[in-house]
Automatic annotation (TrEMBL):
A Pfam entry, by short name: C1q
Lineage, highest ranks first: Eukaryota, Metazoa, Spiralia, Lophotrochozoa, Mollusca
Name of the molecule in the record: C1q domain-containing protein
SMART domains (alphabetical): C1Q (SM00110)
C1q domain location: 163-286
Length: 296
C-alpha cells in the first residue's frame, strides 16, 4: 500500500509538471480536454488520500496484532513456568507413591508366601484325615451294601412268593342242573359255567363240596330260588354253619330268592358247601347260583 501510494503521488507530480509545460508552450487545446484532465487529477488525489487513510488504519491493525502477540508470548511463558513447576511436583509425588507401593508389595508378597505355606500344611493334614475317614467309610459302606444285598435278596424272594401267590387265580360259577325237594342235605350246584385254578372239579361236581387248593381270602356268594314257604339254607365250612339265609315266608305258590355274600379265609383242603335247612323245593337253572372267588 505504501508503494502504491508513492506511485500515485509520483504520477500526480508528473501530471502536474506536464500540465505546466503545456501551459507554458502555449499549446492551445480545447477547454474541455483541460477540464477533463483536471478532474482526473482530482480523482487521483482523492484515491491517494483514501490510500493514505487505509494505510494508517492498517498500521493501527498491525500495532494491535503486535501487542496481542506480545501478550500471548507473555502468557505462554507464564504457562510454561507453571506447567514445569506442576510437573516437577507431580514427578516427586509419583516417585514417592511408587516407592511406598513397592515397599507394601514386598511386605504383602512375604505375608502371602507365609499364608500359602500354612495353608499347604493345613490342607495336607486335612487330606490325611479325609483319606483315613474314607478308608473307614468305604469298609462300612461295603459291609452295609453286602447286608443290604442280602436283605434285598430275601425281600425279593418274599415279594416273588407274594406275587406268585397273588397270581394264583381261583374262581368258579355253578348252578344246580336239576331241581327237586331238598331235606337237610348238601345242595349240589353241579352245572359249572366257569372255573379257573381248580383241579379237583370232578370231586366238586360229585360231592357238592368245594375243596380249597390255594390258601387265601375268598368271596362266597349264593343265590337260591324256591317257591316253598319258610325255605332256608346254610353255608357250611368243614361241617360248621357260618351263614343262614331265608328264601321267603309266604302262602301260595310263589317263587322267592334268598341271596348271601360273605368273605372267608380258607386254608388248604378246607371244604365249603351249601346245606338245605328243613325240607323245601329247589328250583334249578340260572335262577339259582353259587360263586366262589379267591380275592387275595
Amino acid at each position: 500500500m505504501s508503494s502504491e501510494f508513492w506511485s500515485f503521488r509520483n504520477g500526480t507530480g508528473e501530471m502536474s509538471s506536464d500540465f505546466k509545460i503545456l501551459k507554458q508552450l502555449g499549446n492551445i487545446k480545447p477547454l474541455q480536454e483541460i477540464q477533463t484532465l483536471q478532474q482526473a487529477v482530482q480523482t487521483v488525489s482523492a484515491q491517494t488520500h483514501s490510500l493514505s487513510v487505509n494505510e494508517r488504519a492498517r498500521s493501527q491493525d498491525f500495532l494491535a496484532l503486535y501487542n496481542m502477540t506480545i501478550d500471548s508470548k507473555r502468557v505462554m511463558n507464564e504457562l510454561n513456568i507453571s506447567t514445569s513447576s506442576h510437573l516437577r511436583n507431580l514427578d516427586t509425588k509419583t516417585s514417592n507413591q511408587l516407592s511406598n507401593l513397592e515397599s507394601r508389595q514386598n511386605t504383602t508378597a512375604a505375608d502371602i508366601s507365609n499364608q500359602l505355606k500354612k495353608l499347604k500344611t493345613k490342607t495336607y493334614k486335612q487330606l490325611i484325615k479325609i483319606e483315613q475317614s474314607q478308608n473307614s467309610t468305604a469298609a462300612d459302606i461295603i459291609t452295609k451294601m453286602e447286608a443290604k444285598e442280602t436283605s434285598d435278596n430275601l425281600t425279593m424272594t418274599m415279594v416273588q412268593k407274594q406275587i406268585n401267590k397273588n397270581a394264583e387265580r381261583v374262581a368258579m360259577t355253578a348252578h344246580p342242573s336239576t331241581g327237586g325237594t331238598m331235606a337237610n342235605t348238601i345242595m349240589k350246584f353241579d352245572d359249572v359255567k366257569f372255573n379257573v385254578g381248580i383241579t379237583n372239579l370232578l370231586s366238586y361236581k360229585t360231592t357238592g363240596k368245594f375243596t380249597c387248593e390255594h390258601v387265601g381270602l375268598y368271596l362266597i356268594s349264593a343265590s337260591v330260588t324256591s317257591y316253598t314257604s319258610d325255605s332256608r339254607f346254610y353255608i357250611s365250612l368243614n361241617g360248621k354253619f357260618i351263614s343262614l339265609t331265608s328264601i321267603g315266608s309266604h302262602s301260595g305258590y310263589f317263587e322267592h330268592t334268598g341271596a348271601v355274600t360273605i368273605n372267608q379265609k380258607l386254608n388248604l383242603n378246607d371244604q365249603v358247601w351249601l346245606h338245605a335247612f328243613g325240607s323245601w323245593y329247589l328250583i334249578h337253572g340260572l335262577v339259582s347260583k353259587l360263586a366262589i372267588i379267591k380275592i387275595k
